[in-house]
Specification:
heterodimer, A: about 280 residues, mainly alpha, MetI-like fold, two-stranded antiparallel sheet, 2 strands, B: about 280 residues, globular
Chain lengths: ~280, ~280
Amino acid sequence: MLWFVPVLLLLLTVTLYPTIFVVWMSFQKTKFYELTGFVGLANYVDTLSSRAFWETTYTSLVYVAGSLVLSLGLGVLAALVLNNLKRGGAVLRVFTLVPWTLSMAVVGTIWLWLFNPSYGPISYSMGQLGLSPGLMLGDPELALWLTILVTSWWSFPYAMVIVTAAVQSIPRELYEAVAIDGGGWRAKLRYVTWPHLIPTIGSTALTLGILYLTLITLIIVLTGGGPLGATTTLSFEAFRGTVQAVNIGPTAVYSMAILLANVGLGVLYMRLTGRVTA
Amino acid sequence: MRAANAKVVNSATLVMLAALVVGTALGPMLWAISTSLKNEVNAVSAIPSLIPSPATLSNYLSVFSHKTFVIELLNSILYAAGAVGIALAAGIPAGYAASRYTFPAKRAVMLLILATSMIPGVALLVPTFYLLDHFGLLSNRFAILIILASRIAPQTVWFIQNFIDAVPTEIDEAAHMDGASRWQILTRIVLPLIRPGIAAVAVIGAITTWNDYITVAVFAPDTAKRTLQVALVNQVFDAVGISWSFTMAFALVASLPVIVMFLLVQKWFIAGLTAGAVKG
């Protein structure tokens, strides 16, 4: 037991104590950064009955779902393509993984430049094709979709690596069996690869879903939650509330919503993968 | 004959798709590199071009000679090294005990570590800020280190546990017969055996910490305590005064240590990503 004391001390003070504190905070009346008294569920009632909370929740859902579809789609494609190359697949996989190692601050900065409406290569190319690039990230209709695009660029390599490991664990005999029955690559994909990948794709979707739900730095850099709140997710709102500190009671409620959603997804992940470390 | 033709077409498509995948991943980074090698005027030319002409290293020189660069670099190094050190110091004994001991409260302890790993940092921003402010610990380097260490502590324990699981218990028992204490067994015998594993955990933890923006940005308002990542984002916020060629050079310099560390341990990095993620 003594062996666990340092790590428990660390996690109790830095993680568990603030967790308990945020619960307590969410029941407090607040003024700027002052806690002024117990108010029961008032913060919850106010927040949950506000339009802003549900709009933010909706934005979070669109953001998470959109990023999942794009990153998993690209990730599976990348995994299958690179794994079927005769030579060089492993090396190309390492190169493809580089975006995932970059910080969200760097990724956001690079894409902010790529999306620059005046000098960026993307708006220029769109102009050459006769499309009007508009304000790109400054366009409330477009900002969330571009943020999804960047998120997927950054994280599809993660999906690729996990799916590759799953593809490589499929027994070769199964493909040979399909070949003997006269099946081509379509049949192999449909009857061997795909059924083997579904559980892995499911667990990867959960891991990435948790990541996207709690992601803020990329949004801070790309859009700052704007324009007109178009990219304000629940997590971004928890961040904004913390640094602006106008009234932290509702911010605590947003934090609780993220916390509960996250723990729920985490438990689901444990159930599905049967991964218990105790 | 037909089959052979189909095969050729198939692999040409495959190569094209592979080029598309790698191009998607690397294209934006190439553009960033290209911009970083342009002078400020060419970076914002009306017709963007991938090839910088004339190519110049002046942006990199400006980054290195920028007045706050050194302190930001030192902070980044200090936080990454310190957080990894703390996480290892706390995680190694725990990982050893998790691998070698069974006792009634162990399941509870391991579940607690698992549970804390599920609590997202973003949900703790507001209470942690409040508490740090309350105790006068905002912008305190040690507080930042401890917070960063706590984020990587759970994974450190699990990795170390897995590595020690792979060391046969007979080795421990033999040393025990020779009169070695548990602590001596861990530090003199087990740790040297899992040294490559520890290096991998350290590098993965260092990458995570190095890349952090939010912890330092929110809990260290003092600019003397900020890191390269925070400095980078602050440049972007200054939308009017921004020089894109300088900012791209800065972003690449801030990423270089991570890319180098990744390439050094990429096998372990990939193994770490996939550990437990694929259902056998």
